[in-house]
Amino acid sequence: MSVQRNDWSLQRKGQIDQERHKERVRDAIKKNLGSIVSNESIILSDGKRVVKVPMRALDEYKFRFDYRKKKHVGTGDGDTKVGDVIGREADSGQGLGQGPAVGDRPGQEYYEAEVDIDEIAALIFEDLHLPYLEEKSKHAVPAKTTKFTEIRRSGILSNLDKRRSMVENIRRRARESGEANLGPFKKEDLRYKTWEEQVTYESNAAVIAMMDVSGSMGEFKKYIARSFYFWMVRFLKTKYDHVKIVFISHHTEAREVSEEQFFTQGESGGTVVSSAYKLALDIVAQRFPPKEWNVYPFHFSDGDNYYSDNDEAVRLADSLITTCNLFGYGEIGEEGASSYRRSSGALLSIFKDRLKSQNRFVGVRIDDKEDVYPALREFFGKRGEAA
Amino acid sequence: MIDREVKELEAAIDQIWDIAVGKFGLDPFPVHFEIVPASVMYEIGSYALPGRYSHWTFGKAYHRMKMMYDFGLSKIYEVVINSNPAYGFLLETNSPIQNKMVIAHVLGHVDFFKNNAYFSHTNRRMIDEAALHARRMNEYEFTHGRKVVEEFLDAVLSIEEHVDPNFFIKREQPDTKKKSGLKESKPEGKYDDLFSRAELDGGKKREHSEKTEKRKDAPEVPEKDLIYFLLKYSPVLEDWQRDILAMLHEEMEYFVPQMQTKIMNEGWASIWHSRIMREMDLSTSDYVEFAGLHAGVVSPHKGQLNPYYLGYKILEDIEKRWDNPSKEDKERLKLTGGIGREKMFEVRELDNDISFLRNYLTESLCEELDLFVYELVDEEEWTVTEKKWERVRDQIVGNMTNFGFPYIEVADGDYKGNRELFLKHRHEGVDLDMKYGRKTLEYVHRLWGRPVHLETALDGDSLVLHYDGSEHDED
Q1: How far is A107 from chain B (nearest CA, A)?
Q2: A216 and A342 share a domain?
Q3: What pairing do the DSSP bridges indicate for beta strands A361-366 and A327-332?
Q4: What is the distance in angstroms between the Cα of B322 and the nearest Cα belonging to chain A?
Q5: How far is C-alpha B301 from the chain's CA centre?
Q6: Residue A104 located in a structural domain
Q7: Is this prediction's pTM over 0.90?
Q8: ipTM of the prediction
C-alpha cells in the first residue's frame, strides 16, 4: 500500500487524441461545407471569430436498440402509478427533450463543433479566384511581402536555420577531426535566415455587389443573398488586398449604400432591375474605367422584374458585360420551390435567352441554403484565365 | 497537495486497510494509490485503462468529460483499475474526507475484483498488456499509416461488444477436435446449445447439423463472438489487422466482467465505504461532510437506475433477510438467520448483475425503490406502463442481457456458398436502430470484404438488410 504523487505534466495522451477527434471534426466540416456556408450562426456571427455549428458526422455507429421502442426501468418518488407520464418526447430534431433523459440514452448525437470562421473561409476559398483577371497597367497597387532569401552567419536566434547549422557543424568537425558526425556546436556553425521585403504589383479589381431589396424579397431570399455576399466580401478581402467593393441595393430605384446598410437594411416596393444596372454603369464610368480596372458586377434578385423593364434590363446587362470582366447573376427561388416554377418569366431565363455575350455571363439559380456554396464556386471557380 | 497531507493520507490508508481487512474481512489485492490532477483523472477515466492505444473516440470522451468537469457539471472522484497490485487514482483537489471515502470505496472494488468469480479469468497485469498493445498499434500506424489504422479501428470498435462472455470456457483448447477426430462422434440434438457435455468437459466447440453441405473449411456457426469470428475467418484481413482484432478482443475480455457486474460492484463498494467510514474517528463536521457525499452517491435518480443505489439497497436487504428472515423467508427459503454477512460475501463471490437481480430483487424492494417500467406511448409521452414487481424485475434483467446490446451472431460464414457473411439478430421484442444498423453493417463489410447480411425484424415483420460494399438493400 502506498501513495504516490508523480509529475504528470508531460502526460498528454488525452489531449493528443482530442486533437485526433478535432481532426475528424474538421474533415466532417469539409464534407459539409455546403450546409455550413449558409449556417445562420456564421452569417449572423457579428464579427465573432468562433461559432458553433451542429455536426452529425461523428456518430460512433454500433448495433443498438431503437431507444424509442424499448421499455425502460426507473426509480420514482414512492408513489408512481401506471399511466403516469414522466416525460415528453421533444419535437423532432431538438435533441433530448424533456423528462427521462436517461443515462444510457443514445440520443441524437449532435456535436456542436466549434468552428473558426477564418478556418472555414480558408477551406471555402481554397480554389476560388477572380476570373478573367487582367493586368491593367495603371493604378497597379504595390503590395509588400517579406520573403526569406538569404543565409547569414549572424542574426536573431528565432531565425536560426537548424538544418544548415547542423550541416556546418558536421563539416567543421570533418575538417577538424576527420569524422563527419554531429558534435558540440560552436558559434561559427550557426547560420541564420534573413529576409527581404519584396514589392509585388497587383491588378486592380472592383466588385459591384447589387441586391434586390424589393417587397417580394422575403426573409429567406434576403438571407440567401446576404450569405452569398457575406462570403464573397470575405473572400475578396482575404485573397485580394486591393479590391474595391461597391454596394448597391435597389427596388424600383437604386442607390449606393455602405457595407453595413447593405447587410442590414430591409426595404419594400417593386422591382426595376435596370435601375441598379444603370447606377452600376455610371459608377464604372466615373470611378473604375475598364482600361485601368477589372470590374465584376454581381446581382442577386428573385427575378420578379417589372415586365416592362425587361428589355432595358437585358440591354444594360449586355453593356455591363462588354465593359466588365464578368457579370454574375443569382436568382433566388422560393424556399424549397419545385422545379416547375423555376422558369416562369423570371429574369434568369430571359438573360439566358437574350444576352449577346454569354461566355462572360454566369447565371445561377438558388432554391435552397445548400445552393449558396455551389453558387460561390460557380462564380469564382476555375475558369479561363486571361492574365 | 503538500507533503504533510500526503503523510496524513498514508496514515489514513493504513487505518482504512486495517478496518476493511481486519474488522470486516475484505480481501483485496494490495492497492497502489496515486494522486493526480483532473486532466489525468479524466484521461484515465475516458480510456478505462492508463496507457491504452490511441483513437479519436477516446479523445472525444476525454473532451466531453473534461468539459463537464470544467463547467462543474460532474466530477469523478475516483478511478480504480482491476490489476494486482490494483491502482486507485485520487483527484488532487479532493478534500481529506473525500479521499478517505474514495479509498474505502476503492478497497471495496478491489475486493470485488479479486473475489468475484466472473473476474477470475481477467488479466491482472492488464496495464502492461494494454501498454504493449499501444506500442504495437503505434508500430502499425507507423508502417501502414495513421489513417489506415484509424479507419480499421473505427470498424472494429463498432462491434467490439460482440464478444462471447464465456470465451475462456469455450476456447480453452481450440482446434483439438480437428486433430482428435471427435467431430463425428459427438451426439447431435436440439439441445446441443444448452447441454453440450463435450463443451463443458473439454472446452470443445459446438457442432452444427447443417455442416454437411458446406465446404470443409467453412466456419462453424452459430458464433456469437463476432470479433473472434472475423479474426479467424475473414477472407480479406492482413496479419496486422488480425492482430488488432486479437488485441481488442483481449481488452474486451478484460472489460466484460465489469460490464456484467456494474450494479453489484458499485453496491458492494458503497456498502463498505459507508461502513468503514463509520468505524473511523471522524469529527462531527467531517462526518456531516461524509454523510452528504455518501447520500449523493447512493441516491435515486428519478426515472433512471442508479447502479450505486440499486446495488447498495439490494445488498443491504440480503444481509437483513439472512440475519433476521421474515416468516415467509423462513418457510420458503428455510432461513434460520444470523448469517447475513456470510451471505453477502457469498453473493459477491458467485453472482453477476443478472443473477443478482433475478435472485434478490424482491417485491418489497421493488416497492421501496418505487421501480417501474416506462415506454414511449403514441410517439410522444414517456409513460409508466408497468408496476407489477415480477414484470419490472424481468424487464431490468432483460435490458441487461448481453450488457444491453442486441444479441447478434454469425449464422453463416459461407452464405450462398459464396463466402458471404450472414448475421442474425436474435430479436427479443425490441427493434434495432435501423440507421445505426446499416452504418454498422458497412463497418462489418470493411472487415469481411464480401457482401454482408443482417437478419432482424422491424415492426413485427422479418427483415434482412444487405450491404455489398456500395449499396444497401433489404427484403
Answers
A1: 11
A2: yes
A3: parallel
A4: 25
A5: 21
A6: no
A7: no
A8: 0.85
Question: DSSP labels for B457-472?
Answer: EETTEEEEEEE-SS-E
Within an 8 Å CB–CB cutoff, is residue A76 touching chain B? Answer: yes
| Structure confidence by residue, pLDDT tens digits, B382-431 | 899 999 999 999 999 999 999 899 999 999 999 998 999 999 999 988 99
Q: How far is A93 from chain B (nearest CA, A)?
A: 13
Residues of A in contact with B386 (CB under 8 A): 71, 82
Could you tell me the CATH number of the domain that includes residue A295? 3.40.50.410
Q: Are residues A207 and A351 in the same domain?
A: yes
Residues 384-443 of B with CB under 8 A from A: 384-387, 392, 395-396, 399, 404-406, 408, 425, 430-434, 436-437, 439-440, 443
* Cβ neighbours, 10 Å, residue B299: 12
Interatomic CA distance for residues A32 and A29, integer angstroms: 5
The closest CB to that of B375, out of A13, A71, A104, belongs to A71
Calpha distance B392→B373 (Å, rounded) = 6
A232 touches A298 (CB < 8 A): yes
Domain range spanning residue A306? Answer: 203-380
Say whether both A208 and A339 belong to one domain. yes
What number of other Cβ atoms are within 10 A of residue A357's Cβ?
A: 12
pLDDT in tens, B111-133: 999 999 999 989 999 999 999 99
The verdict on B287 and B334 lying in the same domain is: no
Angle at A240 (CA atoms; ends A235, A245), nearest 5 degrees: 70
Cβ neighbours of B54 in A, within 8 Å: 13, 16-17, 20
Residues contacting B120, CB < 8 A, separation 6+: none
Cross-chain Cβ contact A60/B302 below 8 Å: no
Reference B415, options B460, B368, B450; nearest CA is: B450
Select from B34, B46, B60 the Cβ nearest to the Cβ of A4.
B34
CA B31 to chain centre: 22
Pick the closest to residue B318 from B342, B294, B301 (CA basis): B342
Are A161 and A300 part of one and the same domain? Answer: no
Distance from the Cα of A101 to chain B's closest Cα (Å) equals 8
The stretch A49-75 carries a mean pLDDT of: 80
**Final residue of a domain: which of B296, B319, B354?**
B296
Domain count within chain A: 3
Whether chain B has a CB inside 8 Å of the CB on A73: the answer is yes
* Residue range of the domain that includes B420: 403-474
Q: Rounded to an integer, what distance in angstroms lies between the CA atom of residue B454 and that of residue B473? A: 11
Helix (H) / strand (E) containing A150: strand A141-152
Maximum separation of any 2 CA atoms in chain A, in Å = 93
Q: DSSP label at B83?
A: S
Same domain, B410 and B327: no
Domain end position, chosen among B296, B313, B348: B296
- Indicate if A233 and A192 belong to the same structural domain: no
